[in-house]
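Exercise: predict the fold of this chain.
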Amino acid sequence: PAVAALTVAIAVLLHVITNLTNSLYDWVSGRDKPGSPQAVPILEESPAGVLKVQRSLHILTGLILCAAVWFGALTAAPMVIWPLVGYLGGVYYTKPPIAYKHRGWGAAAVFLLLGLGTPTAAFQAQAGYVDYQAVLTFLPLACLVTAIMLANEIRDHHSDARVGSSTLVVRSGTAVGKLLYTASITVPFLVVLANIRWRILPTASLAVFASLPLAGRLFSRVRKGENPGLDLATARLYGLFGLLYTTAVIWAY
């Protein structure tokens, strides 16, 4: 129970640090403006707001470092690398000099770090090992969380290009971005079928197909170019798919 609770706490801390850091550097760089829906309201109190966010990040960084050490103590010393990689990946998403989101690597990083890395670390912490079957089990949700990122980039591609942010969709074009988005919400259903066929997942996992109508509406929206709110709609698919997926697996075992 202690390892499980600490794993959840680390995941939440990393999420908060990542979002706050991204908001800070998008504000400081001028990519976010006053009144922007992505801007944290406290940052509009410049320069006091910027200082408050920086101090908060210093505190949160101290907490995540302590949590990483504790995580290693409760599991195994090499496990410390998981939260540290998550921290660096989250911070340098928008922080100079790397800021890889603005170099077209945001979606790939979300897939690897948040989609696969986080559940893999959690599984390894609980089970003491990780194998290809576990990774294949996480793959559907990794694709869907990447779809949320792609929906963001599709929605914001005009404003991103205007401020010089070379996201994946800006670099490759909206046609390719929409193709990748469509693949990201199609592949999860195919992977579930394959995993059932390979006896990695129970037959009960077919419950995820109850979310297929929602996926179908997303296909229609992206084809018609109805981009506003696409990220939130994709997040709803992620939530419903994840709930059905998790419930089915727990029920079966």
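Check your answer against the key: DSSP finds ten helices and no strands in the chain.
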